[in-house]
Amino acid sequence: MASRDDSITGYRQALLGLNEVNEPHITFLTILAMQHAQHAYDIVCAIETHIEMVNPNAKLPAIYLIDSIVRNLPQSPYKFLLKKNIVHTFTSVFEKVRIN
């Protein structure tokens, strides 16, 4: 089993590749979240930080990732952890994303 630091570092690295809505990559990140549910708090923090830090065009794919995690892992701690900041997260994304 990977250490906490290795798990979080790996998840952050995988998040960097989420630049566009890419269903296989979102599925991969969802599965990774499932496999490392014992680090759910840190993974949620990584996702929220990723959303804050990336350019506006890369924010929406992370929203799709949140949706995928919540829908596919309903019995995990993710739903509870993600709902704590979901209003702020969504608001910050939609304030910065330019609708074409």
UniProtKB/TrEMBL annotation:
Domain CID: 3-100
PANTHER family in the record: PRE-MRNA CLEAVAGE COMPLEX 2 PROTEIN PCF11 (PTHR15921:SF3), PRE-MRNA CLEAVAGE COMPLEX II (PTHR15921)
PROSITE patterns, sorted: CID
InterPro entries: CID_dom, ENTH_VHS, PCF11-like
Organism expressing this protein natively: Sinanodonta woodiana
Protein name per UniProt: CID domain-containing protein
